Amino acid sequence: SFVKDGLITEERGIAELTELGYDTEHIDIYLRSIE
Question: Is residue 34 a contact partner of residue 3, using CB atoms and an 8 Å limit?
């Protein structure tokens, strides 16, 4: 992912996922899965 590869910040990744309609629970799960 762009966040994992350091191409965008985690904050921007969260903002973009939010704009795509993801809720905070799913964003959190996604971010934990790419650590």
Answer: yes
Q: Report pLDDT digits (tens) over 3-31.
A: 999 999 999 999 999 999 999 999 999 99
Tokens linked to 7: 């191409």
Global pTM? 0.83
Q: What's the one-letter identity of residue 16?
A: E
**Half-sphere exposure of 22 toward its Cβ, with a 13 Å CA cutoff?**
15
Q: Where are the alpha helices (DSSP H) in 1-35?
A: 10-19, 24-33
